[in-house]
Amino acid sequence: MQPIPLRSFTNWLVPVALACLLLALQADGEPVYEALRYERAAVLGGQYWRLLSAHAVHLGWAHCLMNAGGLALCAAFAAGTRSWRAWATAIVVLALGVGILLVAASPQATNYAGLSGVLYGLFIWVLAPRAWRGDRVAWIVLIALIARISWQMFHPPSDAQRALIGGEVMVEAHLYGALCALALCVWQGAWPRLLRA
Length: 197
Known about the structure:
It is built from ten helices and two strands; from the N terminus they run H-H-E-H-H-H-H-E-H-H-H-H. With 197 residues, it is mainly alpha-helical.
């Protein structure tokens, strides 16, 4: 019997730690949510931590559990291909990217909470290299993600979706997460070539 490679375990380290953080913050209730959510006026007033922390708090338990489950699914798709450092870097870059784009490009977005923007980005970050190497499942999931974001941009969320998560669906965050992930994939692909040049 062959030993399980250490990388298989480290692939899960950051997603599991993040999922535990999401659940712990959700259990802490409303005061934590209010202190950490994205609030445009507060960010513009100097509370820059909200650009990152908003992605770790949620509108309710259903919202939190859906995102924690999505994180687990994303880690399963990664299948030992990403180190814990790569996961940590991608999560921070995507969270900051989504937060900054909300400030810069969506002035109407005054409040936001949840991991979904980052999660859309993580799926693209995990699946794009696999799709590039010819993985058909990765292509199918990527096309489904892009179709879903496109649908969301032109069709407002249903009342059932709003009721499920306990508030408005911030579709722009999904788009920003996807765009940041594409930029991250391009950068990570180009960086080794730049170092060799």
